[in-house]
Each structure stands twice: as structure tokens, then as C-alpha cells.
């Protein structure tokens, strides 16, 4: 059974974080969602760059596909979960709007795009200081989601395309449509595979690092070898690093120890 427009409305009305924006504002901010302002397209919608006028702010606007029931679920999840928390290494959800079947999410704009763009861009390789900075920020975000909030946020969809980079290459984790909340003392039950092929991980299952390819995905407090072994995060830094050695430069901290706190 699908999620109705009324169910979406009832769910987001309980949210207290991001502000609801008039639906007329976002077409104006994006020049009516002009093709030249399109940043990308995912499984559940399109993303555009835009400028809000009050206050003046450059933003990224995700337009959820009208046909996607999963997109509706993710819309609710983004507003009710990530909209309630703040951290320097999480992409901020600024606002949202919905009118019948039009569902839109407004985020802070990340001018250096996503991590996957840089990992596969042969024209501009990331330097080691940038790679270390990106990993440090991602570790800080995952530590916060798993251990420092009132509840543990299980992301279930950490991948390079969801790691965004600001103008100074600080990393910010985004896209929490598949996330869910659990109490810190709870051990989550197994669920279906989440994410996309190539980055799919199980909330419980074999601790096979090959499942991760080039990303360190934190899944839960209790069974999570991925988050506690941050040394595997170096995989995202080594990917496409021709001209670099296969080990990062020596930094005090957790490249080999897997200590999250030492990478903050």
C-alpha cells in the first residue's frame, strides 16, 4: 500500500527542525528547474542548484519523483530524522515543501560536489592532505551519528556519492532517506540489504570488507566492524590515487588503529 499525500503531511508536521517553505519559492530559486541548473539525478529524484532570496543563500534542491513510493518514504525520513540533528560534518537540511504530489528538500549547497566525482576524476586527483581531511570529517560524522546523539542513527546508505565536499574540501555526510533511529542499548535485528549494488551492506552478516569496496560504512553500534575499523576508510582515499603510494602519510591517530576519535 502506497503512502498518501495526507500521510506525508501528517508525518512532516511533527518535525521541529527544518522550516517549511512556500512551494512558489523553489521554482523561482531554480529558474523553474532549468536544465542548466541540474546537478544530478538519483533513484528517487533530481537535484538542482538554486538561490533563496530571503535570506540570500545558495542551496541544493532535491525534487522527489512523483512516481516513487520509496522517494516518499525517504522524504519523510530526511525531515523527521536528519532534520532534527546538527553537526559540522552533516549536510544541513534547511527546509522542505510539499503540495499534493510535489515533494522538495532544500539543503546547503556543496560547491565541490561529491566524493565519487573526485575519486573517478583523472584530471584532478585529491592530494593526501585533502584525502585525510575528508576521512577525518567522515569519521567525525559517523561517530556523532552512532555514539553522541540521543539515539543512534543507522545510515544504511553510506557511499562516496553521499559524501559531499564544501569549498574547503571539508566532508559532510548526506542523504539519510534510508536511515532509522534506534536506542543506544538496542541491538538492531537483521533487515534487508540497503543501498546500491557495489556498496550494499547488511546490518548483520559476514564481516567481509570486500562488500564495502571504497567506502567505510557504519551500520550499528553492536555488530559494526566497519565503523570501529576505520583503517578500511583508507580505501576511499587510495581509490584512483595514481602517483601516490598505497599508504597515506603518517599522521598521529587512527589510520592503523581504527580509533574513530583520533581522526577527529
Question: Can you describe what's shown?
Answer:
It is an enzyme of class 2 (transferase). With 264 residues, the protein is an alpha+beta fold. The protein folds into two domains: 104 residues, Phosphorylase Kinase, domain 1 (2-Layer Sandwich); 149 residues, Transferase(Phosphotransferase), domain 1 (Orthogonal Bundle), CATH 1.10.510. 23% of the residues lie in helices and 19% in strands. It has a six-stranded mixed beta sheet. The termini are far apart. The C terminus is likely disordered.
The poorly predicted ranges are 189-249, 252-264
Computed over alpha carbons, the radius of gyration is 18 Å
- How would a crystallographer describe the biggest sheet? 6 strands, mixed
Instruction: Output the helix-strand order.
Output: HEHEEEHEEHHEEEEHH
Query: Which outline best applies?
Result: globular
Q: Supply the number of structural domains.
A: 2
Overall mean pLDDT stands at 69
Helix tally? 7
Q: State the separation between the terminal residues, measured CA to CA.
A: 43 Å
Q: Provide the β-strand percentage band.
A: 15-25%
Amino acid at each position: 500500500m502506497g503512502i498518501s499525500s495526507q500521510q506525508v503531511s501528517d508525518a512532516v508536521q511533527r518535525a521541529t527542525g527544518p522550516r517549511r517553505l512556500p512551494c512558489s519559492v523553489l521554482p523561482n530559486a531554480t529558474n523553474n528547474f532549468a536544465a542548466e541548473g541540474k546537478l544530478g539525478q538519483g533513484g528517487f529524484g533530481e537535484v538542482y542548484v538554486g538561490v533563496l532570496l530571503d535570506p540570500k543563500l545558495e542551496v541544493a534542491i532535491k525534487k522527489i519523483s512523483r512516481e516513487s513510493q520509496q522517494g516518499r518514504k525517504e522524504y519523510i525520513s530526511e525531515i523527521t530524522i536528519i532534520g532534527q540533528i546538527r553537526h559540522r560534518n552533516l549536510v544541513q537540511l534547511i527546509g522542505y515543501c510539499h503540495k499534493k504530489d510535489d515533494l522538495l528538500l532544500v539543503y546547503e549547497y556543496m560547491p565541490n560536489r561529491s566524493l565519487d566525482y573526485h575519486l573517478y576524476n583523472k584530471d584532478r586527483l585529491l592530494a593526501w592532505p585533502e584525502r585525510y581531511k575528508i576521512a577525518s570529517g567522515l569519521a567525525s560524522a559517523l561517530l556523532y551519528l552512532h555514539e553522541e546523539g540521543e539515539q543512534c542513527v543507522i545510515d544504511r546508505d553510506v557511499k562516496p556519492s553521499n559524501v559531499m565536499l564544501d569549498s574547503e574540501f571539508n566532508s559532510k555526510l548526506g542523504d539519510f532517506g534510508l536511515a532509522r533511529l534506534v536506542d543506544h542499548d538496542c541491538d538492531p535485528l537483521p533487515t534487508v540489504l540497503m543501498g546500491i549494488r557495489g556498496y550494499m551492506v547488511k546490518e548483520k552478516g559476514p564481516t567481509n570488507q570486500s562488500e564495502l569496496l571504497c567506502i567505510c560504512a557504519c551500520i550499528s553500534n553492536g555488530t559494526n566492524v566497519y565503523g570501529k575499523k576505520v583503517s578500511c576508510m583508507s580505501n576511499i582515499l587510495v581509490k584512483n590515487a595514481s602517483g601516490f603510494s598505497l599508504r597515506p602519510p603518517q599522521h598521529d591517530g587512527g589510520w592503523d588503529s581504527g580509533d574513530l576519535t583520533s581522526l577527529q
